[in-house]
């Protein structure tokens, strides 16, 4: 491996080390589901890919952009069932990087926000495979916007924290008590349905009032989006009553109270748009 340099990847170099120019892996954020929310660069790379490795949360509308000539490799994960383990996905990307000219690793949302993109990037870097990261709109930002919920708002929320509601290897979930208790901080929880009762209990024990507004946004930004507005006390009941399933985002904080006035997205209109496009 060559000496340390800070030069562009166009010269076959990434970060501090000289890397192979034989292939490149693009870790691309597919956004929350609506293909109109893809970045211009993401669209360009998807349309010109030789191989696309994609997750369960990548929408069909985004997958439809993949050229027929490209190979597709599905590596989706559901709680308790993984098509491939993360270690196997890392090895697959390294192997593809040594064989293909243009490989797109398509990940829902943003690769570096609860997407394990950092682990995949490290695997590539440590095997001298050149890569680029293409950010995507993360689900927390998009689901909140499409539900009419500003994550920060003067007088209601001076900060926001993104939290995973799922722990590694099914270990006991441990949440930051300071974040849970701060009434001026919006809390957005990814993958929170499986541990919902634990999350609610921790919120109450941390001092969040039971009447704190809460929202569940299921399949945000798509024609199947459902938004349920409730409170921390009634969150579990609301999920059960409306039969909410994954993927769903939990948003907790005073900003949720603005949703009634700021709601703008009409999923039925999106469905009609897709049907008659």
From TrEMBL:
- Whether Oxidoreductase counts among this entry's keywords is yes
* Pathway where this protein functions: Cofactor biosynthesis; adenosylcobalamin biosynthesis; precorrin-2 from uroporphyrinogen III: step 1/1; Porphyrin-containing compound metabolism; siroheme biosynthesis; precorrin-2 from uroporphyrinogen III: step 1/1
Q: What class does this enzyme belong to in the EC scheme?
A: transferase
Query: GO molecular-function annotation terms?
Result: lyase activity; oxidoreductase activity; uroporphyrin-III C-methyltransferase activity
Outline the extent of the Tetrapyrrole methylase domain: 24-235
Chain ranges passing through the membrane: none
> What EC number(s) is this enzyme filed under?
2.1.1.107
Q: Which domain of life is it from?
A: Bacteria
The family note in this entry says: Belongs to the precorrin methyltransferase family.
Q: Give the protein's recorded name.
A: uroporphyrinogen-III C-methyltransferase
Which organism was this protein described from? Thiogranum longum
């Amino acid at each position: 491996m060559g000496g340390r340099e800070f030069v562009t990847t166009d010269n076959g170099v990434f970060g501090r080390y000289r890397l192979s120019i034989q292939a490149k892996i693009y870790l691309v954020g597919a956004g929350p589901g609506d293909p109109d929310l893809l970045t211009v660069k993401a669209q360009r790379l998807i349309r010109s890919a030789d191989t696309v490795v994609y997750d369960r949360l990548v929408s069909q509308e985004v997958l439809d952009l993949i050229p027929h000539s490209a190979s597709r490799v599905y590596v989706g994960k559901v709680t308790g069932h993984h098509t491939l383990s993360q270690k196997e996905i890392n090895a697959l990307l390294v192997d593809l990087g040594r064989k293909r000219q243009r490989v797109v690793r398509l990940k829902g949302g943003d690769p570096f926000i609860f997407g394990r993109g950092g682990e995949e990037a490290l695997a590539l870097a440590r095997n001298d495979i050149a890569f680029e990261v293409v950010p995507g709109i993360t689900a927390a930002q998009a689901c909140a916007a499409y539900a009419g919920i500003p994550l920060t708002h003067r007088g209601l929320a001076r900060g926001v924290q993104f939290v995973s509601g799922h722990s590694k290897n099914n270990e006991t979930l441990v949440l930051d008590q300071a974040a849970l208790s701060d009434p001026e901080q919006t809390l957005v929880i990814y993958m929170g349905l499986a541990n919902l009762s634990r999350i609610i209990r921790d919120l109450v024990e941390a001092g969040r009032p039971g009447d704190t507004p809460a929202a569940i946004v299921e399949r945000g930004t798509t024609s199947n989006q459902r938004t349920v507005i409730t409170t921390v006390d009634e969150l579990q009941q609301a999920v059960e009553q409306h039969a909410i399933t994954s993927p769903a985002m939990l948003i907790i904080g005073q900003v949720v109270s603005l949703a009634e006035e700021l709601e703008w997205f009409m999923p039925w209109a999106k469905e009609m748009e897709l049907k008659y496009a």
